Structure formats: C-alpha cells, structure tokens
Amino acid sequence: MEIRLISAAIALLIGGCGGGSEDTGTTTPPTPPPVPPPTVTQYTASASLVAGGKLTPASQKVDSGKRASFSVQADAGFVLDNISGCGGSLTELTFSTAAMTADCTITPAFISNAENAIRHQDHSLASAIELIDFSTAKLASIDAVRKAQITQLYQGVGSSISWHPTHDSITFSSFMPENTFTLLPSNVDGSGASVVRGLVMAGEQQGQRYAAMGGNLFSVNTSAQTVTLLKNLISWLTQGNDQRDGLSIVTAQMPSRADSWYFPHNEGIRTWLTTHYPNAHSINTANSCDYSALASCIDNQKPDLIVISDIDRDGLGYAGVKAAIAKAKAAGIPLLLSNYRREQSPMLSTLYLEMGLSTAGNYWSKLNADNLSVSTILAEDKALEDVKKLLTNLREQRFDTQVLNDCTGNYLSCNSGAFVEAFKAGADWYRSSAETLDSNGIDVFSRTNFPLMKAGLLLADKYRSEIDYPIAYSEFTQWQQALFADWTVSYARAHNLAQADLGEYVTDKANLSKGTNAHYAYPATVSERKTITVPYSGQWTSTGWYALPGQTIKFSRLDNTNANVEIKLNYHRRNTNRAFEQKVYRAPLELAQQRIKLAKGQSIEFSTPYGGPIYLYISGGEGALSIDVNAQNVAKHPSIMDFSNPTEITAFNDKIQNTELPHVDLRTDGAEQHLRRDRFMNAIGGNVPDVNALLKSIVDDHINSVYTLAGLKIQGKSLTESLPADVLSSCQALFGQDCIDASLHTRTIIQHANYDQNAHCGSGCSGNPWDAAWNISPTGWGDNHELGHNLQTNRLNVQYATAANSDNWTGYGSRAGENSNNIFPYVVKWKTHYLRDGNTNTINDGHMNHKDLFYVFMSDAAGTTDTSGKRVVFGANCKVLDIGEDRYTAPWASNAYAVHNGYRMAFYIQMALKAHGMTLSDGTTLNNGFNLFTLLYQHSRIFGKYANNASDWEANRSKLGFDLFPFDSHSVYGGKSVRDIPGNDFMLVSLSKLTGKDWRSYFDMLGLRYSSLAAAQVTANATLGTMPMGMYELETDLPPANMSQGLTFIPLSLSDSSTLWKGTGSPSQCAKP
User: One MF term from GO for this chain (predicted)?
Assistant: First the structure.
C-alpha cells in the first residue's frame, strides 16, 4: 500500500489599518505560496505463520529503500532451520531485509531439536527425551498408516488366517517401517512357540508399490483366506487396475515343475489366475520374460504387475535383471517378489534391501501363521510395538537389573523372558537393522530416509557419551542406557563418535574408577597400501592397521580377484564380557564385529566408537588368497606380520615404546596372537628379559615347538627342515613321499589366540580363537594346552567302550577331551627346562601323577574290595577312583569334564617313555621318545589322505599297515567306513606299524579296549616282538633330560599282587571304604 502525505502551510497575514505610526510609510510584501512536501513511499514486510516459532514483529511498514529487522523466536524444543524472503540475511537471531522496494514475505522454517540433531548427526543438539519423543511420534504416524492399509487389505478375509510357507521359505523384518510394513506376520514356529516375523511384506516408495512373499502365496498351502488376501494385495499394488481392463501380469525368474518337483510355481500362478481372474487377465508364456527379456516384456505387454522370483538358471544374479527392474521402477510398475529358497538369494537380495527388509531363513524355525486373528494383525506390529515399549522404558528410566539374573552368557544372546520383555525385544530391532545396513554398506545419515533409525543411533551416541565404568548392578538407569548404547551401533556410519570411557577393553579392570575415562593418546594416522594374504580360504588375519575411535576410515580394494572380503574389527569372543557373571559393567558388550564387506573395485568408509585392530576375513576359491587394499586414516599399532623381518621387530619395539595403542597383533602362517597390551608387556621378566626375547620365545618355544611335535611345517622352513631327523627318516622309510607332502602336513587354518581381561569360558577357553585371561606365556601350560586343543584328532584320542562294544566302532567314545592335548604343554615344559635352559634339577608339574596308573592296575591285580566285598579301584590317594570294578571302567567310563585327567595323560606319556631310544620297524633309532607323537600325527594324516575313498584305500592300505581293514562293510565298523576308525584301534595298529612291536599289553595295562580286527592286524604287523607290561616310576616329576634312561621301570602283572610303589606303597594297603 502506498500512502501520500501532504502538509499545507497556512500563511497568516498580520497587519491592521491604523495599527501603527502614521509616518511609517512602508508596506509588507506578499507571502510566497507554500512548497509541497516530498512524496514518501512505504512497503510492508510480513512474516509467514509457521509451526515451531515466529518472527517479531509479525509485520513492519518500512520506507522505501530502508531495511526492516525481525527477531527470530523459536518455540521450546524447536530451532530455526532456515529463513528466506525480502532478500534478507540472518545475523545470529536477527533477520534483516534488504532495502525495501516492494511488499514482501519472510518465511522461516523451524524444526524440532530432534530433527536438527538428525540433520547435523549431532546428539548434543537434542535431549534424550526429545529424541525419544520424536521416535515415538514417528512410530504413531507409521502405525496410523499401517492400520489404514491393513484394514483395506484384509477386507473380506474373515476373522482369522492361516498360512504355512513350508520350510523352503524366508521371513522378514522391516528396518524401514516408514515405507514397508508387515502384511502377514507369523505367530508360531514349527514347535508351536510364539514367534512373530513377517511372512508377507508390502510398501511404497516414490510412487512405486511393492510386496515380498517369504514363499509363493499363489501356490503354497493356499486357502480361501489367502486367496482373498492375495487378490486384495494385487488390487492394492496395481491401485485397482486389476479391476478395470483386466490384469496384465508378467512373471520372471519363476521356478517350474521342470526345475523341481517341489516348486511348480510357474504352473501354480497360472492356475491361480485362471481360477480367480477368469477371462480377466493376461500373462506371458512361462520363462519368456527372464533376465534381459524382462525389459522387452515391460515395453510390449505394459504390465500392471511384475511377479519376480529367484530361480537363476544362468547364474547371472541380480545383474541379469537390474536394467529391467530399473525400467519398471521408472514406470511405476509394482513388483511382487516371490521367494522359493531357504535363504535369501543373490537374485533378490538387492530388492529386499531397497525395500528395507532384513531376511532370515525359515528352514529350521518353520515360522507360520496359524489361525492368526485379523484383529491381532490390525492391532499392532509386534516389532514396532516392542520398540515403542522400549522407548517408553528409556524415557521413564524404568529398568531393574534383576531382569538379567537368568542370563548365563553375554546379554546380546540372552533370551530370558523377563529381559526380552523389558529391553531386548525392542532393542533387537535397532540391532538387526544396523546389522543389515552395515552388511550392505549403508550409512543412514547419508540418506534422506531412515528417521527412526537415525534417532535411535543418536540416542545411543548420547548414552554412550555418558558411560562411566565400572557400572554397579544397582545403577539401574546407567545399566539400561549402556545396554542400549551397546545394542545400537552402526559401523557403516562415517562419523561415529568415540566412546570416552572404554573400560577394561583397554586396561585392566583394577585401573577403572568412576569419574575417570579409560582411554589413550592417539598417534598420527597414515594411508598405506598392502597386499594381504591368507594361506587358505575362509580365514581372518591381521593387517597391522588400527582403527582409532571415531576416526573415518576409508578402504579401497584394488585387486580384481573373486575373493570375498569382510572387514573384521577386534578379536574378542562374546562371552569374554563377563558382566552377566560378575554383575559389573566394565566394557562394551560386543567389540568384535564382521559386518562390513569390501567387494572388488569398491571403496567404503566406516568408523567405530571403540576403535581396535583391523582384520580381514578372506574366502572363496582354493589355496592361498591375496587381495590388494589401500587404507586411509588408519593408525599403526604394535604388530608383526613377518617374524623373519628385522625391520618389523624394530618397528614393533618403537610402537610399544612410543604409542599408547592398547592392543598387539602377532602373525605367523599358521597361528596369530591378539593381545591387550598389558597381557604382552606383563610377560617380560626373568628368563624373558625384553621384548625381543619374548617375541623369540613365542615363535620358538610356543608355536614352532607345538607344531613340530604335531609333525607340521613351520613358517620359514620346508617340511623336511621342520621335522626331527629321526622322524623324517623313519616316516619316509615306511610311507615315502607322503611324509614330506607340505599340502598334507601344513596347518590348514590360522589358529588364533586372544589374551585379554577374560576368556570366553573359565580362565582359558579352547576354540578358534582360543582365549586366555592371563598374560601370554610361551612356555606356560595354559598357552600350549589351548593351542593343543586345536590339534586334537579322533584317531589319536584315547577312547572308552564297554566289553560288549569292543567290536563295534559306534560304541567307542572319546575320553581325550582335556588330556590328549596335554602332550604339548608337557613336552614344551620338559624341553624348556632341560634343553633350552640347560637345567639338570628335577622339574615337577601337578597336572598328572603316574602313581595313579600303578594304583589302578594294582587294584585289579590285588582284587581290592570295599567292606561289602564289592570290587573297587583305588587312586594314588587311596580314594576310590570312580564307579566301576576294574581298570577298564573306573578310569574311563565317566565323560565328565577333565575327570581322571592325570591317569588318562599317563597313556600318552608312558608310551613316549617306552619308545625312547627304541629301534623302530625300519631300523631308525628314535632319539627322543616324544618324537613318537610326531610319527603318530604324520601317520594319522597320511591314513586320512587315503581313507576318503575306496580306490585310494585299496591301493594304499597295505603300505599303511592296515591291510586287514576293508574300506567299509566290516562287521566291526558298525555301518561306518575305515576313515571313522576310533583312536584305540588306530593307535594300536599304528604303533605296531611304526615300531614293529605288539603294544596290546600296554593298552591292557591301561584298561583300554580295542577290536578283534585291530588285534589281528597287530599280530600281522608286530614282527619285532611284544612290549613288556609295566611302567616307568614317576609321580608329579617330569622325566629327566635322558628320558626313560634315567628312570626305574616297574614290571606289572595281574598275577603278581605283591609289587610295591617305590618299595612301600600298594592299593592293597588302602583302608576299605
């Protein structure tokens, strides 16, 4: 509006006749006419009315050419997002227009604090309650839309529905519920237990509707209810086009009866359409629109709907249909996905991902909808209702650690009902969604969707920033929030925030205290290109790279191989976090993860709130695999990739001395150690004076010593160089070139060992990795016992069978679980004491007492009984050993953990003592009795090479010393084949072949049964006589440097009950129980 203002000047003429002196003689001149004022133009600057805030004043009138200023006022919980209009600019909270030349409008935009935090990926811009309320409101909006869709889609279905997609199916969950909802959920699994996951999903993005079926709803277990639901779904997908001019449908990649009798889906869908759309549909000829032909079918048939399955006859995967799917999307043609496999297929996995779906195989669980009430489906989406409940509990800080009391392992795996109800059911949605996103390299903050997930990740950031270890069991809120932080981590984010307090992950738990962050100084990062190699497929290995907490890291793969690569962060097994046991929260629940994949030619960014060593898991193909990777923004921690390289040893010392990085990696071809720094440094002292000495001991005393005893090639040497001379000579004389076949006698996996605050079980826990709660000790019992666990083989495991089962291999069961591996720590301890350190004094170890063997045998010789006259067997302490009336039962029948371990160890150690200095069957002298173990290991692997098929076996069984053993069909085998031979039979026959001696008396002395077939073979092999029954006199002391040559041999016989232990002791002297 323009206003013109005019000011009129009124001239006052003041004068009067006769008013003055008559003689003035003057006259007043006339007043000039008034000058009109200048014209001033004004314009109005007005503020738009918007939610979340306002401008004050609401409008202003401003002279032309002048500027107006407005104060920006955001409502509580909101912040200005942007403002525009009137050519103005914002300075702090004042918006100033440009010089006004016309009326104009200023439009501010306010967003909630939660939306602002999401926009900037910064949890500090919103409170926890604001993030929770944002999520809850989003869930309410999602549910309102879902209910409207469910109501529409279940019209006419009835009150309930059942559908079993069979075990050849998959189930779903939606990590993008803003777009994709559950149409038909399961309610039970195959056992009838309540389990809710999606069987049929539907959704819409950018104008294209879609659905996914875990099985084929057209042809699998159909009913009137499923027919109505499917017709409604088709109508919804096509937005009613199926009812206008008839349904035009195209099928692609659909299995037919010709492909499999079980999946005649091409036939099934066409029968279904003929029945339910009679004379009102058109469909392509089966298989005519597969792969690239689908694009032509879209052009020519202009379908209302594409139904695509995942049979991939040409092995092209999703690439075979990618272009056609893009054409369908561009045209807005709806897709209906029909799975027919037991896991998601490469053909459809990309589409599931784009639909926001996580999948799970249904083969074992057999989830199905069983008389599921439609009102239940309408009432709630169980997964999202669980999320809503969790958010409410978080908002109200409602949590009691008592719900954790029934958890017997890491909480991530705990399915205790109380915990699931109070926390886990909702938290698992965040976790499974993050896992799917990470495995597909999706950083949600780089996308415009995923608001619910983004808010959850920021809430976890906030809680993580406030963690202060240790957290007591009574600190309910802190425990609840730490759980959520640990559950909700996405490593595909480029900008995870570093967790300030890393707890016992980086330092001993004794160093933790409230108010103090366990952390470390960061070194400079580097960019580096490496070729990373594993000697065998399916292995993970150290890279020498370290991820700093919160650091954006970029990996680029530069090779062109077909190897599959996954980035693994940290090494910890899940139950090494003992919060469930100790009731104190001291570190993140899950440190190790292997979610992120790195395809050939791909570059990917990732980050971690915890940091840690970076490993690569490489699989695919045969033999050694190598990949070429460039890493940006990684740190270099104390690590050795090649012990033979002096430069690496020097660099390791430098990193240990000059960085605070809290982890160490040591790599050899067949074994790797991963340690928290203190578990390495605390091992220095005594006979290991410095870092270099410790590194040398790890290689020589631990890894190489154990692998040599097992007859394996060691790094940096040929197999011929790795084996003791007597072993090499005898083995080659008996078995030829198989003895030096490196492909046969090289460890076929990388054995990993972890040293940290806790082990996965106990204080030392076997497996791969095995882990320890102690400092690394290359000559220690625990280290070599655990490494030995992974070298145990059934053919060298001592076994128990009843008398009735001695000629039935299926009746034998291993009793070597915690003892056959003890040959390794035993020999390492002996070698270290006598050979490495040159000691001459006796050394003892409490893991076994050979006196037990004497007392058990002599109990049978003396016929010891209890007061009732019942036979009993005594141990060295004059206590009844166990249930059983003889040495064949009492020491062997029980399969309890580590029971009678010392007695069972005696089988192996006394064997080596007997073999020491022996002339073997080929004439070689066995210089050290422990080398008999090496020969047994080599013979076992050569046996295994030829026992895999009948033709190889028949050609080689005589050479192996097993010429009486057919490949299969022997009555002793119990329906098995020769490769399933139990340890007692194998070792008895092997010893007869290696030594030319009959060892049956030795097995009889120990109470070990063997088959009549093995006995007959021994008779044929033992051309050099029989081993005398008896034992060497040892208790807890290890044999001297000259082995049995320095020991007393005690002959034993069941017919002589007078034999005494060291001239004084006998079980016949024990008090009768």
Answer: metallopeptidase activity
Phi/psi at 665 (nearest 5 deg)? -125, 135
Compute, in degrees rounded to 10, the torsion defined by CA atoms 195, 200, 205, 208.
Answer: 180
Q: Do residues 872 and 1073 make contact, with C-beta atoms less than 8 angstroms apart? A: yes
pLDDT 10s digits, 706-751: 999 999 999 889 999 999 999 999 999 999 999 999 999 999 899 9
Query: How many CB atoms within 10 Å of residue 203?
Result: 22
- Residue 905's contacts (CB-CB under 8 Å, 6 or more residues apart) are 819, 822, 823, 826, 847, 848
- Lookup: tokens for 70: 């407005």
Please report, in angstroms and rounded to a whole number, the separation of the first and last CA atoms in the chain: 117
State how far the Cα of 949 lies from the Cα of 863, in Å rounded to an integer.
47
Q: Where in the chain is the domain with CATH 3.40.50.2300?
A: 138-385
pLDDT digits (tens, 9 = 90+) for 894-906: 999 999 999 999 9
- Judged by DSSP in three states, 718 sits in coil
Eight-state DSSP code of residue 374: H
Based on its alpha-carbon atoms, the radius of gyration of the chain, rounded to whole angstroms, reads 40
Cα torsion angle, 712, 717, 718, 723, sign: negative
Q: Exposure of 963 by Cβ count < 10 A (0-12 exposed, 13-18 middle, 19+ buried)?
A: middle
Q: Name the CA dihedral angle for 655, 656, 661, 664, rounded to a multiple of 10 degrees.
A: 100
pLDDT tens, 655-687? 999 999 999 999 998 899 999 999 999 999 998
Q: Which amino acid is at 472?
A: A
Q: ∠ CA(546), CA(547), CA(549), 5° rounding?
A: 140
The whole-model pTM stands at 0.90
Alpha helix segments (H runs only) across 896-949: 901-915, 931-946
Strand partners, 751: 671
Tokens matching residue 749: 């996996």
Provide the residue type at 56 as one letter: T
d(CA 866, CA 878): 12
| Residue 41, CB-side half-sphere exposure with 13 Å CA sphere | 10
Residue 865 in contact with residue 871, Cβ under 8 Å? yes
Contact 137, 112 (CB under 8 A): no
Sequence-distant (6+) residues with CB within 8 A of 755 are 673, 674, 675, 676, 679, 680, 771, 772, 774, 775, 776
State the pLDDT confidence band at 27, using cuts at 50, 70 and 90. Answer: low
Widest distance between CA atoms in the chain: 179
The pLDDT of residue 26:
54
Among 795, 787, 802, 781, smallest CA distance to 901 is for: 781
The confidence score (pLDDT) of residue 22 equals: 39
- CB contact set of 645 (below 8 Å; sequence gap of 6+): none
C-alpha distance from residue 449 to each of 145, 175, 178, 445, 455 (Å) = 17, 11, 8, 9, 11
SS3 (DSSP) at 406 = coil
Q: Does domain 138-385 have CATH number 3.90.226.10?
A: no
**What are φ and ψ of residue 901, in 5° steps?**
-65, -40
Structure tokens at 955: 């050609």
